[in-house]
């Protein structure tokens, strides 16, 4: 996607709000500003807009509207699933997290510990998937919840959600699936007990997400107040955000060829980047993801050069105190620290064109060339 002379290749970080989603939101920010919990006409209209949005999202998630809880983000959805399960678990004291989970899951660990739960990380295979044998071996009837994402935000690696759900069911454990990256691109598996999605990854606004909680799953609220969302998530609803989210979801559902188009752009990029110094991390992942390392070029130096050359990309790993830490995901896949510190993530989206991908590859080779003087 071009923005002036810049190339946006970071759709896994966020996506632009679509024109349709922005237009759908506008009235709910201005003249239709009423609080959906009030009783007069304007408020009832806001309530109805939320209900209609819930129906759209439930259809997309193949669940009942009453199973959708609107929240402020994918992060909050994960926290609600995890701490809601901890609040609902009586005898089960163990949480199992795939080692590749997003920080919004992994960073719940210390607080779970302080609440008396143990947290164990299930290793990844070299392909970036949660190791199912290791999961099976770790399972027992004292596991409260397993968390495993549908697709990894850094590498794009896909987990086998249906098999994980089967293992969890066998041991009576809850299964939380973070579907933030795959929702709208790949078919959603409806078997987990809780599934998180986030609007800003699918051309909706930032600051709104949803958690699908399967009817009957022992997940309790973690926010208390005005009783919104059927007592599951107190706080005045983000009406405009929810309406924009649903519009973006509708658009995705009306465009079944989107993933294939995005994949053809990604494939063109991968093809153009087939140079000796590049090593690809994951073969069959998310359609828009290209995750690789360039020998001899650190992510940090590459990202600085790419920025100068007008390419928005990412390393996929967290940036702390000014330096890029090696990604926990890549380390869990068995990469060395040096290799992990050379990781780059390009992620293409609905508005990316093949020409953009070719130009991004050209500039990336230029950026690498400046660093290594070896790659052309
Ligand atoms: C896999 C995954 N989970 C959760 C999140 C958090 O979502 P949000 O930005 O809506 O808090 C992200 C965002 O990058 C993500 O990629």
Major sheet characteristics? 7 strands, mixed
Give helix and strand order, one letter per element, not per position: EEHHEHEHHEHEHEEEHHEEHEEEHHEH
The CATH architecture of the largest domain? 3-Layer(aba) Sandwich
Please identify which CATH superfamily of the largest domain we are dealing with.
Answer: Type I PLP-dependent aspartate aminotransferase-like (Major domain)
Amino-to-carboxy terminus distance:
24 Å
Distinct bound molecules: pyridoxal-5'-phosphate
Mind telling me the CATH class of the largest domain? Alpha Beta
State the main characteristics:
alpha/beta; Aspartate Aminotransferase, domain 2; 2 domains; three-stranded mixed beta sheet; 13 helices; 15 strands; binds pyridoxal-5'-phosphate
Description of the molecule:
- With 376 residues, the protein is of the alpha/beta class.
- The protein folds into 2 domains: 2-16 and 256-372, Alpha-Beta Complex (Aspartate Aminotransferase, domain 1); 19-253, Type I PLP-dependent aspartate aminotransferase-like (Major domain) (Aspartate Aminotransferase, domain 2, 3-Layer(aba) Sandwich).
- The chain has 13 helices and 15 strands.
- The chain has helices spanning 19-29, 41-60, 74-88, 103-106, 109-114, 132-138, 161-171, 239-253, 258-272, 299-308, 328-332, 337-340, 354-372; strands at 2-3, 6-8, 68-71, 94-98, 118-122, 143-147, 174-178, 194-198, 209-213, 278-280, 289-294, 311-312, 319-320, 323-324, 343-347.
- The strands form 4 sheets. Strands 3-9-8-7-6-4-5 form a 7-stranded mixed beta sheet, with helices on both faces. Strands 1-2-12 form a 3-stranded mixed beta sheet. It has a 3-stranded antiparallel beta sheet with strand order 10-11-15.
- α1 (19-29) runs antiparallel to α8 and α9 runs parallel beside α13 (354-372).
- The protein is globular.
- The chain starts with a strand and ends with a helix.
- The model has no long low-confidence stretch (mean pLDDT 95).
- Pyridoxal-5'-phosphate (PLP) binds next to α3.
């Amino acid at each position: 996607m071009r923005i002036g002379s810049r190339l946006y290749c970071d759709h896994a970080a966020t996506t632009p709000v679509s024109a349709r989603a922005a237009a759908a939101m506008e009235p709910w920010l201005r003249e239709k500003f009423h609080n959906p919990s009030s009783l007069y006409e304007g408020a009832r209209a806001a309530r109805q807009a939320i209900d209609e949005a819930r129906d759209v999202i439930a259809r997309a998630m193949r669940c009942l509207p009453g199973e959708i809880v609107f929240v402020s983000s994918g992060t909050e959805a994960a926290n609600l699933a995890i701490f809601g399960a901890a609040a609902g678990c009586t005898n089960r004291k163990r949480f199992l997290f795939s080692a590749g989970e997003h920080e919004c899951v992994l960073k719940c660990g210390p607080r779970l510990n302080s609440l008396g739960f143990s947290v164990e990380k299930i290793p990844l295979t070299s392909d970036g998937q949660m190791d199912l044998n290791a999961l099976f071996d770790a399972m027992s009837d004292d596991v409260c919840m397993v968390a495993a994402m549908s697709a990894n935000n850094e590498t794009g690696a896909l987990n086998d959600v249906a098999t994980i759900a089967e293992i969890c069911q066998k041991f009576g454990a809850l299964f939380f699936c973070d579907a933030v990256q795959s929702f709208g691109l790949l078919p959603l598996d409806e078997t987990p007990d809780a599934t998180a999605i986030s609007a800003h990854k699918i051309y909706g606004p930032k600051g709104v997400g949803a958690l699908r909680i399967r009817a009957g799953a022992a997940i309790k609220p973690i926010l208390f107040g005005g009783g919104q969302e059927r007592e599951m998530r107190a706080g005045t609803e983000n009406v405009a955000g929810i309406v924009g989210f649903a519009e973006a979801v509708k658009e995705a559902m009306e465009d079944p060829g989107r993933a294939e188009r995005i994949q053809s752009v990604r494939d063109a990029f991968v093809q153009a980047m087939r140079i000796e110094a590049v090593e690809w991390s994951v073969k069959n992942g998310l359609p828009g993801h290209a995750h690789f390392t360039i020998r001899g070029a650190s992510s940090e130096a590459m990202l600085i050069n790419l920025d100068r050359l007008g390419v928005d990309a990412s390393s996929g790993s967290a940036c702390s105190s000014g330096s890029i830490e090696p990604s926990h995901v890549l380390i869990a896949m068995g990469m060395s620290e040096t290799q992990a510190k050379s990781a780059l993530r390009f992620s293409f989206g609905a508005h990316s064109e093949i020409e953009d991908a070719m130009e991004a590859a050209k500039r990336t080779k230029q950026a690498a060339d400046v660093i290594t003087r070896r790659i052309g």
